[in-house]
Write a structure and sequence with these properties.
By secondary structure, the protein is α/β, with parallel strands linked by helices. The protein contains 6 helices and 6 strands. The protein has one domain: Ribonuclease Inhibitor (Leucine-rich repeat, LRR (right-handed beta-alpha superhelix), Alpha-Beta Horseshoe). A 6-stranded parallel β-sheet has the order 1-2-3-4-5-6, with no helix packed on it.
Length: 179
């Protein structure tokens, strides 16, 4: 019996999980059986991609904390499903995810509604209806955002500082190695 199968068959009511190097298929195996996850940490995973993030977003509607530390394949675009569907999210750590730039990613004229800076500036993440797509104008619940060692672009950094200084983070934590 392989490692993910043992967890899948024996651990089906997890609320917190920390993993080291993992893959999208292992994440799929675990989160589809543990929809009550509130805290998920994934460290140093070069084989974990935006597909795995999408599986988390689709299967963890009450996720409150997500740490994707040193996940080299994570980008602003990768985390959009989390910002869209994990509406109870209070803590997001993208520590040393070097592809996170803090920019909007959309090929259309307008910024993506669920990009990092757009979501933070518009407050589209909300607590009231976990698992449903965030609605414009809903109250914001993210309390901690860790972007330490992310290689924020100048534009992304300015956008995040503007969001921080205006409304959302008056008494909240915003961490970045550049601030």
């Amino acid at each position: 019996m392989s490692y993910p199968i043992r967890i899948q068959t024996t651990c089906t009511e997890l609320t917190s999980l920390t993993l080291g190097a993992t893959t999208d298929s292992i994440i799929r195996t675990i989160v589809t059986r543990n929809r009550g996850l509130e805290q998920l940490s994934i460290y140093c995973s070069s084989k974990f991609s935006s597909k795995g993030v999408k599986v988390i977003a689709e299967n963890c509607p009450i996720l409150k904390g997500l740490k994707l530390k040193c996940s080299v394949r994570m980008s602003d675009k990768s985390i959009e499903p989390i910002l869209k569907y994990c509406t109870a999210l209070e803590e997001l750590s993208l520590f040393s995810c070097s592809k996170v730039k803090g920019e909007c990613h959309n090929h259309k004229r307008n910024a993506s509604q669920h990009s990092l800076t757009h979501s933070l500036s518009k407050g589209v993440v909300f607590k009231k209806y976990p698992g449903k797509a965030a609605k414009k104008g809903s109250p914001f619940c993210l309390r901690n955002l860790d972007l330490s060692y992310c290689e924020l672009s100048k534009t992304g950094f300015k956008a995040l500082v503007k969001v921080h200084s205006t409304t959302l983070f008056s008494s909240r934590a915003l961490t970045n190695s550049l601030i």
